[in-house]
């Protein structure tokens, strides 16, 4: 399509084998749209560049040095487990600013520790997927976070999957097709006779087109919602917004 060519071993011009399957800004857009909320990004732990951020709460250099030492020890244990960590000890912004910043960036787990936590052997833990704050013991913290990486990953996936499933409606008649499309929207799982003519006719009547032929959809005998002709499987229709 773009006339891209190369010189082969024989010195002759040949066209490249090119493809486009969305692993670019489209994939990033899907990641953002599928999981994020009004507070910013929600990143799956397996894709997050920073999986755990540590924020010291302190007054004075002595407190900072003590908390930083403790954080560095925890960070070393987490890194040994393959978990990426950042200690944010910047002194030019407040801790509240840091909390909001890493929430916006979608870091899966945030840890905060102050002098009282040092005394009590506790730490504040916030998981980004649920915006849930807990005060937990420093003992067993590494194992807890390691488990959270799996739990958060599964929770984010399950939430997105459940939402997708809630937006799919199975329809069997043309009237039902039009009604659900107008009243609820989302995806319509309907029989289609496999012809371009029918897809074009449906688009002209409703502005809905086939968005996907599910690869794992079972064979199912039925009749096309528009033409009434035989159909062997359902496909997903939706309007493009």
Pattern of helices and strands? EEHEHEHEHEEHEHEHEEEE
Gyration radius (Cα, Å) is: 26 Å
Overall pLDDT: 95
Count of separate DSSP helical elements:
7
Helix content: 25-40%
How many extended strands? 13
The backbone outline, from C-alpha atoms, is elongated
Query: Which ranges are low-confidence, i.e. pLDDT below 50, for 5 or more consecutive residues?
Result: none
Q: Describe the largest sheet.
A: 5 strands, mixed
Q: Structural class, please?
A: alpha/beta
First-residue to last-residue Cα separation: 27 Å
Indicate the proportion of strand residues.
15-25%
Strand line-up across the major sheet: 4-3-5-6-7
Short description:
This protein is 39% helix and 22% strand. It has seven helices and 13 strands.
Walk me through this protein's architecture.
With 241 residues, the protein is an alpha/beta fold. Helices cover 39% and strands 22% of the residues. The chain contains seven helices and 13 strands. The strands form four sheets. The chain has a five-stranded mixed β-sheet with strand order 4-3-5-6-7, with helices on both faces. A four-stranded mixed β-sheet has the order 8-9-13-10. β1 and β2 (13-15) form a beta hairpin. The longest helix is centred in the middle third of the chain and has 26 residues, at 141-166. It starts with a strand and ends with a strand. The mean pLDDT is 95.
């Amino acid at each position: 399509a773009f006339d891209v060519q190369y010189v082969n071993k024989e010195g002759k011009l040949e066209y490249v084998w090119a493809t486009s399957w969305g692993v670019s800004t489209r994939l990033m857009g899907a990641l953002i749209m599928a999981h994020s909320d009004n507070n910013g990004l929600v990143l799956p732990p397996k894709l997050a560049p920073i999986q755990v951020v540590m924020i010291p709460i302190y007054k004075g250099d002595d407190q900072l040095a003590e908390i930083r030492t403790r954080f560095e020890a925890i960070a070393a244990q987490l890194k040994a487990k393959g978990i990426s960590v950042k200690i944010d000890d910047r002194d030019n912004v407040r801790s509240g600013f840091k909390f909001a910043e890493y929430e916006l960036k979608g870091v899966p787990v945030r840890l905060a520790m102050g002098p009282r936590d040092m005394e009590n052997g506790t730490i504040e833990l916030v998981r980004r997927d649920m915006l849930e704050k807990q005060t937990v013991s420093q003992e067993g913290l590494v194992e807890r976070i390691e488990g959270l990486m799996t739990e958060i990953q599964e929770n984010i996936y399950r939430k997105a999957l459940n939402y997708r499933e809630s937006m799919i409606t199975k329809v069997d008649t043309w009237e039902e097709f039009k009604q659900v499309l107008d009243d609820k929207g989302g995806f319509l799982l309907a029989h289609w006779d496999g012809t371009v003519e029918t897809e074009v006719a449906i688009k002209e009547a409703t502005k809905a087109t086939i968005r996907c032929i599910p690869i794992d959809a079972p064979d199912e005998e039925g009749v096309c919602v528009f033409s009434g002709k035989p159909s062997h499987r359902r496909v997903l229709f939706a309007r493009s917004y």
